[in-house]
Amino acid sequence: MNIFRLTGDLAHLIAIIILLHKIWKSRSCAGISGKSQVLFALVYTTRYLDLVTSYVSIYNTFMKFVFLATSYATIYLIYVKFKATYDHNHDTFRIEFLILPSLALALLINHYFNFLEVLWTFSIYLESVAILPQLFMVSKTGEAESITSHYLFALGSYRALYILNWIYRYATEGHYDLIAIVAGVVQTVLYCDFFYLYITKVLKGKKLQLPA
Amino acid sequence: GHLGGTHDEL
Question: Is the pLDDT reported for residue A88 higher than 60?
Fold first, then answer.
């Protein structure tokens, strides 16, 4: 473990808590893409199946349960509890165009061709594009509430911090995982225009307006 | 390469 990965995991946890808290407090999921949340739940479910087969540390096990529980809780709030506030009209990204190519790529490019490893690889590829429905929804509505942009900033920062972790681990342990690194760079690049808008606008108290 | 075939990152 290193400071980059620890702060990355914390940024990830903070993002999830910001979102859950926002939906719970405002009793509304307006402006939130349920599709992205479904993709995240799929990412954690396929990635953390190794909870039953391998133990890394109490921290690792605890965080996996937290990410699984919070992602399903978020889906429950969006599609069950506050479904009346779910914005069907703007959450229209075709997620099958993200799931199927990720699965196909995982079957073609992986470290080992076995069930858990292919699912892990699928979760890595899917996570890199899982935010697209949310970014698409923000661009369609043309704006995002500031709390949603804080959520996106924390979520985008988590994988950016993981890139620093991968550099650190390569420099100190000679450890690297090219699949995770390439997907992580793609994932972080997808946030770049948002990061720019967040830093130039939201931090100056303006509303986040994405070019529609 | 992997840490003994398991992934040690979240």
Answer: yes
